[in-house]
TrEMBL record:
InterPro entries: PAP2/HPO, PAP2/HPO_sf. It comes from Bradyrhizobium sediminis. One of its GO terms (cellular component) is plasma membrane. Signal peptide: none annotated. This is Phosphatase PAP2 family protein. SMART domains: acidPPc. The keyword Hydrolase applies. It is found in: Cell membrane. It is a multi-pass membrane protein. Keywords: Cell membrane, Hydrolase, Membrane, Transmembrane, Transmembrane helix. The chain crosses the membrane at residues 47-66, 96-115, 122-143, 175-198, 203-221, 227-245. Its main location: membrane. Pfam families: PAP2.
Amino acid sequence: MSVRAGSGESSNYFSRFYVVAGRSLAQLVRSPSHSRRAEAARRSARHILLLTAILSVAIIALMIMLDAREIALMPPRGAASLWPIRILTDFGKAAYVLWTLAGLLLVVAIVSPALRGNSRSMLLGFGTRLQFVFFAVLVPVLVGDVVKWIVGRGRPFVGGEANVFNFRHFGGTEAFASFPSGHAVTSFALAFAVSALWPQARLVMIVYAIAIALSRLVLLAHHPSDVVAGALVGLIGAMAVRYWFAARRLGFAIRHDGAIAPLPGPSLGHLKRVARGPFAP
């Protein structure tokens, strides 16, 4: 949403709203322009291939050696004492995360046309970062749903027994939507996206993603290999979206070695003051 105000723009709020919305969407699909995008693509591809190789081996090993054993170690499904875990796990639900991000984007879209100058630029810059986080979660979630449908792995105890190799490919039912874990996809994608923009939040986001993944195991909603697969899909999808934004000079810079780094952005405190500005007496 890094849309610059023109000197001859309309004084009508709704005209400015449509201009901001249109340009914000157009910048996402414009041709990549960064001169070092090829270096960034090669570096990202190396990291994705390495991550895929390591976690794929881990997924296979977990399926063979740990998945069945882990099920026996968990408390009974539906136990009353698990209510805190049920609350925790909802923080990794894709619908909740995406609707929250969409709501924040809507607030930026509504408020920004009422602002002028630096205040507007600051808020739109934050909007660009929100766009990145939204798509960094949405893209891997959609990919994960397709993989779930193709693989069709049964959740723990579907069929009456702890069969970790219970598959019904292209089944399309919730009972056979265990691989990969959608909550793990969402939480790891969100953790990567937030950490990519604000590295100081990395530790908190890692703890968040791991907590969500573990909650899926405790609730017997997934096998260990499912949550690792979810983490893999979430991380790869978010990395791909980060490259897409960096190649278009949106929210990220590309260094000479191809590394992608976040551009300096406004603080949350400053953004709160900016957002309050148009409504202040």
